[in-house]
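Appendix B. One record, verbatim.
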Amino acid sequence: MANTSVPKYQYPANLNVANFVSLKLSSTNYLLWETQVLSLIESQDLLGFVTGDTIPPYTKITDANNTNIIPNPDLAAWTRTDRLVKAWITATISEEALGVVVGLKTSHDVWSALQNAFSQGSQAREFELLLKLQEKKKDSTPLSTISRTSRLYVMG
């Protein structure tokens, strides 16, 4: 009988990231990039790796007889999947952003560093757009025009 068990850590290696993420992260498009990357990661049930909820297993465990301490085989599987998620992220960022994550070990570390480095600019930009929206409401510009202009502005 064949082993039909589901692996503890998925490893969708045949996935072409460029089919899912059309943007390279830069200082001006964090929110758009984040939306695309999270959609990819969530679609593969791997979000816990970037949020830190899927923690690495212990490096050592006891054998089936509880007599010897042995390397945990789940650690290699976890590490392989985490490196894949990290590669997806780093494949979708600009050289500028790559400088922020050089030397970081896990996908969670990379995600957190990018969030810290780029989300503040996006939030400031979002606030600026809201202010412009309020100004436009005062001069009675149609909302459809404001919405279209704002979307183009966000896209950079």
